[in-house]
């Protein structure tokens, strides 16, 4: 259940709940996340959380939808005008502790999509948005003569799988795979570029 009916007050409350959920997930992960953790990050009452969301799962499904909306804004930003720029944004060379903590929680939520249809539906939308953006950017890079004549769909799937794999490995091992993965992605993107 979502109490967001489009009114300014409800929209502001929804945003505050989503931001509190972000902080609570970053600090606790999904396994240890409770409504109380979210309430501790929320400036208003715990009862208001329950007014808007019947269960933690309802809140988390809405949270994934909120993330999709926020990522759509990032992916459609004016500064994202090439495949390399998107890779810079999504797969930075250095990841601060806050983003690393959140990515670990995000991976945990994604794992739950294997057995939760509502989560799977949201992550399917998330992946489609990201993939469509990558396909379009690669297509534009080919049309502008920056890349060789590559299949944008194959290139997008390769990048998406590589980025997802790097995020999974970073969140689930003690190895620093991001630096090596980014070097590999940079080399692969350089191999797509035209020399003339």
From TrEMBL:
Domain HTH tetR-type per the UniProt entry, residue ranges: 11-71
Xref: Pfam families: TetR_C_6, TetR_N
Keywords associated with the record: DNA-binding, Repressor, Transcription, Transcription regulation
UniProt keyword annotation of Transcription regulation present: yes
DNA-binding region in chain numbering: 34-53
UniProt entry tagged with the keyword Cell wall biogenesis/degradation: no
A GO molecular function held by the record: DNA binding
Domain of life according to the entry: Archaea
Protein name according to UniProt: TetR/AcrR family transcriptional regulator
